[in-house]
Amino acid sequence: MVGRKPKITTNDSDRADQRRRTEELIDKTKDLNKLQERAPKHLSGVARSTWETLVPQLNSQHLVKQIDKNIMTALCEQVSIERLAYEAIEEKGVVLDSGRKNPACQVLDSATAKVKSLAESLGLNPAARASLMNVQSDNNDEGTDDIVNDLKKKGDEQF
After folding, report:
1. pLDDT tens digit string along 10-26?
2. CA separation, residue 139 to residues 13, 17, 26 (Å)
3. How far is CA 112 from CA 23, 69, 83, in A?
């Protein structure tokens, strides 16, 4: 089993080992070009505004690079699809007049799952950023194995 997922942060109020891991991640990717802040020409509407909102923030953290352009493009496209599906549900409802489920519900569900997956592959959450760079955590925190062993010692027979 695995312990807690490592936190990636540059905040001075967070633990030193977490900040060190983040610095290591930034150092390992320093030679790669940052992601272009201008959205690709084929993106429009929500997809374009998503790109132009996220990319400057990601570039300031030095964690997403130009090699991530296709994944970032797919993420922006899926955010746009997600928004269109949501608007269709708002307009027609979850159940159509015919009594059938609105197909936009499935589109929304699918797009949401893809957004989550693509965001993780870009490192848009701390655990994903750490695992992308294979950054090892110092095991100062009590890991899951330790918790299981403690429960066994206390006589919990479920384990």
Report:
1. 677 778 887 888 788 77
2. 19, 10, 21
3. 31, 20, 10
